[in-house]
Design goal:
- Strand 2 and strand 3 form a beta hairpin.
- Helices cover 53% and strands 11% of the residues.
- It is rod-shaped, with a radius of gyration of 65 Å.
- The chain contains 21 helices and 14 strands.
- The longest helix is centred in the middle third of the chain and has 90 residues.
- With 740 residues, it is of the alpha/beta class.
- Among the domains are: 48 residues; 163 residues, no CATH class; 236 residues, P-loop containing nucleotide triphosphate hydrolases (Rossmann fold).
- The strands form three sheets. The chain has an eight-stranded mixed sheet with strand order 7-14-13-8-12-9-11-10, sandwiched between helices. Strands 2-3-1-6 form a four-stranded antiparallel sheet. Strands 4-5 form a two-stranded antiparallel sheet.
């Protein structure tokens, strides 16, 4: 042929002017696909999964709604005040704190849901004997052994078990719904009986109020018991300390007349001795003052009080009257006048009486002075005696005060504890801070099932399940979906993406041979990109392989050979997949002599190469299947054959076996310029592809690039091929009657 075959290198590989770099040296392209496009592509890929799950969810929702028993809901509204109403102005043991209002209300909401309230409701309404209650929750007495009457009254154990069952049903159907930004709470109950729902909702609010009152009273019970024990102890302490105080006072002749207390403490306790001393001292002071006065009168000669003496005063008044009468008579008569003489005699008699009375008074003053002196001396002696006695008692009062302080302390403790005990008893009688605002009414219609709501919930549940299923499938599917991911995940340059098609296998060859078909144009793009992998155009010799069978490598080999031959170049296509030959089927030719015959010693290439119905294209079929293809390829016969074919043809295209699990492809690659690697869209996981490529790199094989097959443009998030059809051929590795 016109083109000379390139000379092989020392290691058996054909030297290329511009070998492709290894994956370790290739730059990995970061995907910049918008998330919305990726999600849309995923949705398109899994649309039937999503549609199926959503449809099943809607059907399940519809079936459950139609089969569900009608339920009736009734609600009572209560108000929970932060501060309880105090009947008395006495503080309880629990401090009022408005700082944690949210914590308070959250606590109340949880208390509304407690089993204690449910048990009170069950006992109040006697639900253990109310078979209608159990029937309202779907429990048929005939089918429930616990509710069966057996012809007699239930035993105590059965009633207890029924009550437990009723409590469980109550807790499972009660709903507590706080009204936002308020102290109001809605207590709702749902059952199959509207009357029972209303009764339970009302009973729940009433029993919650009763429970809160009981809990408040019980919260002070322990405190009251403790204070009772403490009061008894303190009472004994007070009695002991008072007994010691009295005993000590008797032993030391301390007689306390009264105690002066302030703030529960004895601040003064005057004794009999101190009170007597004080009285005697006051009497002594009076006696001294009297004695001094009398002594002063005696010294001045003015002893006796003649001025204020009533008798002397009367006599002097009488004398003054008589002197006035005498003076009047002297105006008219002489002193010798009889009436005048009588008045003079009377005046003289009065003067004598006055003199005698004044003498008597002065003598009494002397007697009073002497008596005052004696009284003063007597009182002074008594004061001195009491002072000595008080001094002795004051020394004993030191220990007495110690006993007195102990008595005061014990009594103060006792009275404080007693007062607190009384306050707690009064504080527990506070009014409830919970009140019923609206009582529950018997509902006029069922609250469930709600068909629109259930269908909406089923729709959202279907989408949620579909999302989980799609996520799981996408995570399990590790194959490469998008052509733009090939370089980033494998390091290989992308030569092209071949769309999927719905045509039959026998029609694929005709479609590829049609230059106007879009499938042929896709392979023409691969040929163009392959021509840019070297500095002399399309490689003179290359093979096409893949990771596993049925990825489209045989079709790619056939298509590339046809496209290259269409440009006027002479091309020979070799079917080197001796385990599962398929290329001859695409040309509708026989597989009698071929590649395996040359490897087993056939020297003449003429009978092995057949002219095809495609211009400029020849075929060397796989030939007979050898016992061990790997042993045949271990020799240099393949390299010699490629060199001979290069003398006759412009290009040698080889369809090689897959890489995973087989040894032929790395051995064949040594005789060729390079490899075109086929990757099925959503096929082999990325790790399997990279493992296959590692085998090629270990054998120093030049990989020109990758071709993605069976690609659906609708699933791509960014690869804009725009093919309007599918490429759905399916190859079955090992089938000889149909081409691959």
């Amino acid at each position: 042929m016109n083109n000379a075959a390139p000379s092989p290198s020392d290691d058996g590989r054909t030297l290329m002017d511009d070998p492709a770099p290894s994956p370790e040296k290739r730059p990995r392209m970061a995907s910049e696909t918008p998330l919305i496009r990726e999600y849309w592509a995923i949705l398109l890929r899994q649309k039937w999964v999503v549609a199926g799950i959503v449809a099943l969810a809607l059907l399940a929702g519809l079936a459950l709604t139609l089969m569900a028993t009608p339920q009736y809901s009734s609600s009572a509204r209560i108000e929970i005040s932060r501060q309880q109403q105090q009947i008395t102005n006495v503080e309880g043991i629990e401090k009022s704190d408005r700082t944690f209002d949210q914590e308070f209300y959250e606590t109340q909401y949880e208390l509304l849901r407690t089993r204690a309230v449910a048990e009170r409701v069950a006992r109040e309404l006697r639900l253990a004997n109310n078979l209608a209650f159990f029937a309202a929750h779907g429990l048929d007495p005939d089918n429930t052994p616990l509710l069966a009457s057996n012809g007699g009254a239930p035993s105590r154990e059965e009633l207890q078990n029924r009550e437990k069952l009723a409590v469980g049903l109550l807790l499972g159907n009660i709903s507590i719904s706080p009204v936002v930004r308020s102290a109001l709470v809605d207590i709702g109950y749902t059952s199959g009986n509207p009357t029972i729902s209303a009764q339970i909702a009302n009973a729940w609010s009433e029993q919650f109020i009763a429970e809160s009152i009981d809990r408040r009273y019980e919260s002070t019970a322990d405190a009251r018991k403790f204070l009772e024990r403490r009061l008894l102890e303190l009472q004994e302490d007070v009695q002991d300390s008072e007994r010691q105080l009295v005993t000590y006072a008797n032993e030391n002749d301390i007689v306390v007349l009264e105690r002066v207390e302030q703030d529960g403490k004895t601040v003064a306790s005057p004794t009999l001795a101190s009170r007597n001393l004080s009285a005697m001292n006051e009497a002594l002071n009076e006696a001294v003052a009297q004695r001094v006065l009398l002594e002063s009168q005696a010294r001045t000669g003015a002893g006796g009080d003649t001025v204020t003496n009533p008798a002397i005063t009367t006599l002097r008044a009488r004398r003054s009257e008589l002197q006035a009468q005498y003076a009047q008579l002297m105006v008219q008569f002489e002193p010798g006048y009889p009436a005048a003489r009588v008045l003079q005699e009377q005046i003289a008699a009065l003067d004598q009486s006055i003199a005698r009375e004044e003498a008597r008074v002065r003598g009494s003053a002397n007697d009073q002075y002497r008596a005052a002196v004696e009284r003063e001396e007597t009182l002074r002696a008594r004061v001195n005696a009491l002072t000595g006695q008080l001094r002795n008692q004051e020394r004993a009062r030191i220990q007495y005060n110690i006993y007195q302080n102990e008595v005061d302390t014990n009594r103060e403790l006792y009275e404080g504890v007693l007062q607190r005990y009384r306050e707690i008893g009064v504080a527990s009688v506070a009014a409830s801070n919970i009140s019923v605002v609206d009582e529950a009414q018997v509902p006029g219609g069922p609250s469930s099932p709600n068909l629109p709501l259930n269908m909406l919930i089923a729709l959202f549940a279907g989408f949620a399940l579909a999302g989980a299923a799609v996520f799981t499938l996408e995570q399990l599917d590790e194959g490469i979906r998008d052509p733009s991911d090939i370089t980033a995940l494998t390091g290989l340059p992308l030569l092209g993406a071949i769309p999927t098609t719905d045509e039959e296998e026998e029609d694929i060859g005709q479609i590829i041979q049609d230059p106007k078909s879009e499938l042929s144009e896709a392979y023409l793009t691969v040929r163009s990109n392959l021509a840019m992998s070297t500095n002399h155009g399309v490689p003179h010799s290359f093979m096409v392989t893949s990771s596993r069978p049925a990825e489209g490598k045989s079709t790619t080999s056939y298509a590339l050979a046809c496209v290259i031959a269409r440009t006027g170049k002479k091309v020979v296509l070799i079917d080197a997949d001796m385990r599962s030959p398929s290329i001859h089927g695409l040309f509708d030719m026989a597989n009698e002599l071929g590649f395996s015959d040359y490897l087993t010693g056939h020297e003449d290439l003429g009978p092995l190469v057949q002219q095809t119905n495609v211009p400029n294209l020849w075929l060397m079929s796989a030939g007979r299947t050898p016992p061990s293809a790997a042993e045949l390829l271990s020799t240099d016969r393949t390299r010699e054959m490629v060199a001979k074919l290069r003398e006759q043809f412009d290009h040698v295209v080889m369809d090689a076996p897959p890489l995973l699990g087989l040894a032929e492809a790395p051995l064949l690659s040594r005789a060729l310029d390079g490899v075109v690697y086929v990757i099925e869209a959503r096929g082999v996981p990325t790790r399997g592809i990279n493992m296959s490529l590692e085998r090629l790199h270990d054998s120093n094989t030049n990989v020109f690039g990758a071709v993605m097959t069976k690609f659906s443009g609708k699933e791509s998030s960014q690869y804009g091929y725009g093919y309007g059809y599918g490429y759905g051929y399916g190859l079955s590795y090992g089938r000889e009657e149909k081409p691959a």
